Amino acid sequence: MIALLLYSCAGSKTTTSAPKPLPSDGASSPSASIPHPPADRPTSVEEVLPPFAAPKRELRGIWVATVANIDWPSSGNISFAQQQKEFIEILDFYAQRNFNAVFVQVRAAGDAFYPSKYAPWSSFLTGQQGKAPSTSIDPLHWMIKACHERGMEFHAWLNPYRATFNLDTKILSPKHDYFLHPDWMVTYAAKRYYNPGLPAVREHINKVIKELAENYDLDGIHFDDYFYPYKVNGKEFDDKAAFQRYGKGLSLADWRRQSVDLLIQEVSQSIKTTKPWISFGVSPFGVWRNQTQDKRGSATSAGQTNYDDLYADPLVWMKNGWVDYIAPQIYWSVNHPAAPYETLAKWWAQNSYGLPVYIGHSAYKVRADTDQSWQSSFELANQVALSRQIPHIEGNIFFRARSLMNANKDVADLLLQNVYTVPALPPAINDNSPVFKELKPEVTETKITATGISLRLDNAYLAQELVLFGYNASGKWELLEQLPVEEAEAGEWYHFAHSMAPNYGFLALGFLGNYGEMSQLYRWKQR
Q1: What is the spatial distance between Cα 346 and Cα 342, in angstroms, rounded to a whole number?
Q2: What is the pTM of this model?
């Protein structure tokens, strides 16, 4: 069992619509004992400021599943105002626990949670597929803005190949691809799928991706583990005709893997030629191959694998740089006999070709699985603590949002108290911009207010976000709040609604660019 230091309840990230909890005695908070430079140091203002050391970045994400309304919205038949309220409830719950990224399922089954030329409106949003929401607000634009207001990244999560969630065609819109392109469909185990082997399908999915990238201020585009469907005994995925036409001498398995590879490669190119700062990543099934199947595989005995059953080869995607990160779904406990968490976390980190690894965690198993390890409220916190000890693992994503709310709220609170005690910036996609590194905020005026601190800046328009840091009682800089540049008040004023900010002896302000890269810091001592 992994030993963890248990902290008392700590402060959480500020949000614009909910009060920030005050730090308790166990939290890292400002006080009269904040370290100051030695008296014999030079007296110039710049030299007496503590040197800035950026806090470690870490992705802390949550998947918000929309399929069958399992996370959000609770129903497609409630008002959009009620759906907004539910979404804000999810965001505030996780923002207050220092999460910094949300992965929202915007395409669940050949549908869309946004106005699209290539898919009908989702019934999970509006109650009837193809029916527009009864609002003039673009739901996706609104969700992105709500996330950014809370300093959270928004990643658009898509199921590229699942076309329907069941075989009932009466519930489908006439604009669904089942009717428009029946030749693209393969029926398998009570669902319909786009045939991955058809070039027309790849072209279509690329149009879907390009539309999203062009029209929305996304931080990322994300695919999950559904490529070729998980195998069901006695069922055959009937793609013989496409294989005969496009196989070109390959085995069926190799041709299927090549078809998926081509999709990943082409989607990556579409994103990078449209908005290269949008990250593209995949959360594949947790086992690439077992060691008994391939000496490069993991010391596991999984019943199905990415390579052999889903025809997905994430090693190829990482080796060729087609993805910006990988987020393997390691949905087993630390002590699982067939697929131990630690074994798989290390395997993915060692085989990531230097790319960031974000571990996918099965929050849905807490107190709901036959593996007794999940009865422990510390299983997830222990997994996060363990992953932090492994090079190349740069964060964690939890499936799914509602799993840690309500009955399992105590488990989310333990994550805050043990591993997410202070806020963190997500990792940068690219932090090697020489131009941006020369940029420095020009703060011309500061004001302490009843709710935080306001700053006047002359050059904020050059940045994507503002980030405020405070120098704490432990002699370390910590992230206090992120603020989108468009949140300016009266032109050049920006208000950081962090009630404790005025109590820090030293503050620092930085800019973030499109790629998450950091500018130089403007530091000052508070009077």
Answers
A1: 6
A2: 0.91
